[in-house]
Amino acid sequence: MDAFYASVEQRDDPALRGRPVAVGGSRERGVVAAASYEARLFGVRSAMPSSRARRLCADLIFVKPRFDVYREVSRHIRAIFARYTPLIEPLSLDEAYLDVTDDLAGLGSATATAERIRAEIKAETGLTASAGVSYNKFIAKIASDQNKPDGICVIPPHRGEAFVAALPVKRFYGVGPKTAEKMAALGIETGADLKAQSLAWLNRTFGSWGEYLHGAARGIDHREVRNDRPRKSVGAENTFLRDLAAPAELIGALDEIIDTLWPRIEGSGARGRTVTLKMRYDDFHTITRARSFTEPLLDRGLLAEAAHGLLLALCPVERPIRLLGLTLSALEQPGEEGMAEQLGLAL
């Protein structure tokens, strides 16, 4: 989906259309969860501190997120997907992989299916979506960003390797700023540069990730679309209107986060074994502390006990706290099924 949260807000409030919008945060505090394309022209991006976003765009309009609405729209969009394939692997509320090999609608190609889905999303939700169509997940993911917003990019097998060769490595899925910096220091700027390296060298330099990079640089990715993709973590966080320092205030704020988090954990149908506390000081320095258990945490009380322990171990705090977050990971989700065999369909 294109600028999903912001686009939903602009759809529902005509006064926001054509204007720079940031979902989340406020003019003084917090972090931008999503930015409209009008805001992106000023350099505003998701995960950016609100204060910086406001400096970049003085006319930026901050809108409180409505996650219940976004989830409902996401369910509608996934229902549209299901008309064309049962093999849907969601990555988030606004993004998913689809394997349309079986061509349930008889449209003859993956491209025709993608165009039909995009048209139905627009007609039924009033929102635009962009699609990447290719023969594997790695290239389809990159292609989905290629012609945003409201675009489609098709990369057939005979063009895959050349497409990847011309890409900056920072656009490779999983290559973050730090890894891109490391690669640049090693003279690796593009997919072609990466392809020039041997598998042995990549394994020595990047460890277990070397094999993935070796294949990706050649347009190879054998991962299958999984409609039972397990969720890896569930989390919640809060940026406070004023900085907190007293242990009692921090425990109270943490309990409010747990009240938000526990229903999400129950809704996910999973239980986790690792609790991670995130703490951001007033100077934006951020630390995390984690504790893992041999058995999953099966009730809210156990989660709260673990979270309180992590927080109290850091008290008294060095500086006032502007944000707390809590995540439950190492999730165990029963009932995982085998992956479907991929067949052939024209792109």
From TrEMBL:
Monomer. This is DNA polymerase IV. The lineage of its organism: Bacteria, Pseudomonadati, Pseudomonadota, Alphaproteobacteria, Sphingomonadales. It comes from the Bacteria. Poorly processive, error-prone DNA polymerase involved in untargeted mutagenesis. Copies undamaged DNA at stalled replication forks, which arise in vivo from mismatched or misaligned primer ends. These misaligned primers can be extended by PolIV. Exhibits no 3'-5' exonuclease (proofreading) activity. May be involved in translesional synthesis, in conjunction with the beta clamp from PolIII. Binds 2 magnesium ions per subunit. Transmembrane segments: none annotated. PROSITE patterns: UMUC (PS50173).
